[in-house]
Amino acid sequence: MLKWLRGLVQSTTSRRITAKIDVAQTTNQNSKHWANADGLSSRAALSPEVRRIVRLRSRYEAENNSWYAGILRTAVNHIVGGPGPRLQVLTSDVMLNRRIEKAWQDWCRRVDFVDTLRVAVEAYWRDGECYMMRAEKPRQYPISLDVRLFEADQIAAPWDSAVWKDDYQDDGIRFDRETNELMVYVYDHHPGGNVWSSNLSGQWYPAKSVVAHLFRAERPGQVHGIPRATPSLQTLPIMRRQELATLLTAETAANFGMYLKTNGVTPAALPSGADFATMEMARNMVTMLPEGWDIGQVDPKQPGPQYEMFQRQALMSFCRCTNMPYTLAAGTGKDANFSSFKGDMRNVWEPEVKVEQNRIDVMILGPVFNWFLESAVFYSGLLSGAPPIDQIAYSFQWPPLPELDVMESAQAAELRLKTGQSTMSFEYSRRGDEWEPAAIRGAADLGMTVDEYKRRIADSLIPVATPETTTGPTESVVTNNTTAVADTAMNGAQVTSIVEIISQVGQKMIPVATAKALIRSAFPAINPANIEEMLAPFASLTPSVPGVSADMPTGEYTELSQRAFKNNQKRIIQTLNQVKSGEMSQVMAEQTLASIGLTADRIFALIQDALDGQVDDPELQQVTR
After folding, report:
1. pLDDT digits over 64-93, tens only?
2. Measured between alpha carbons, how far is 101 from 394 in angstroms, rounded to an integer?
3. 20 to 30 A from 78, CA-CA: which of 90, 397, 403, 481?
4. Are 454 and 506 in contact (CB under 8 A)?
């Protein structure tokens, strides 16, 4: 038995670990730096006293440091936004959804819930956590719900908690083994209040159903939050001290108008301290100094070039822990270009804002909306036909961040819609709006029905392909009798253009097939059946080609009039230039040139001519001269 144990010990001691990590070594150089590193748990490390000190210092800086105050307000404005989150009920009953959304909107306006939410978010960022409690305001019947905010100071352990030790209680929060909040102890008055009553009285309230707790957990088992700027909070006093030191140095230099100094090695003894007295000086005076004396002036060297650099670097260090870009935290873009600012906003700040909005959605808006539905039971007819409260599907649409490039955002949204990667409902939700009410407002502004408004937008995003028609014995015509009159109605100039084309057919200047192609390409909204009907009387006409004069263009368009020829040539040149610059694809260019009436071989030759970088076709040069 002893031999076995001795062998086990020897085999264990013989396999010593020789690997090392530099940061794990303690030396004379780093011993002081790592002296405060500990192995405390999240609850032990964030003890009530530690959180209280950090919280008080964070508030002090927020009240006395303009950088910190501006960062907090910018964060609140971007996270909550102006109108605040918008409720969207997602049940199958559209009318029920509208009733609940309207009632929620009215309630938020009555209790000023959006502004309350802004205060809660600012307290959460500054203090590390904030509490919202369900309250009642009977005069607001039938929905008497109201909410109250509490600072973290008012949520603490009862005064007798030291007697009754509870391992599942941490400074006013009672939780289960999985750290799910069960009860919250709320003092009746703020410990720092100026009321003439006891500050020790309080009560336990159920979590979630009565008290909502907003905080950010950074370690497992953490049940309380700390200010967001805790890692760099000590940077703010340094910035203020450097600013005051720079100001005092400049003031000291400015207080001395000038001074007298002697060039002698041993200046004469001064009879009294009165010789150091100040005196008034007249403007533009001329004076003489005794021998050995000179006049001088203090050289003001503050603020020096290092002042702004230090302030900028300190602010960058401070705002990094908040994930707010320096340009946004500083409130100016003079040190950054637009491209870098857009990258910081999209890659750093926008994800941070979305994460914070999701946290507020879960920790605050979810419980508050449940309180609202429980109060809405007394609202006659509001929840008629609704499923159980816990089965009502909903979401909150947050206001978007300010648009950095409106045109780029609009083009991106249009591309997503045209390629089927998005929907109108999703694009409007990205903007914090809803598609159906927006469509109703848009249709009303333009004086049309909602269905017509939606169809117009759908046609602009995904145009309906014009059916092809063929002439001869096998000709087939597709007619759409449901097309609205407004889609095919033309103005006077358009009617004149069509009449001119038809007159050219009647004068045997262009064939019927060419006229059809011209009308289809210039007026795609016209029903193909109407085009056939307009040109039916000329189907048997054969165009007569007079002799080609020296002044007329030669080539494929000798059958056209001079005006028609130039118009088509200009359109061809424009199409080829777009192909050359990459604005139009070859497939689209082939369809455009085919609609004009060019043959396939001619189209291929022109596109190849444009792809080499320059259009050299002699017929096209006649128009460009």
Report:
1. 999 999 999 999 999 999 889 999 999 999
2. 10
3. 90
4. no
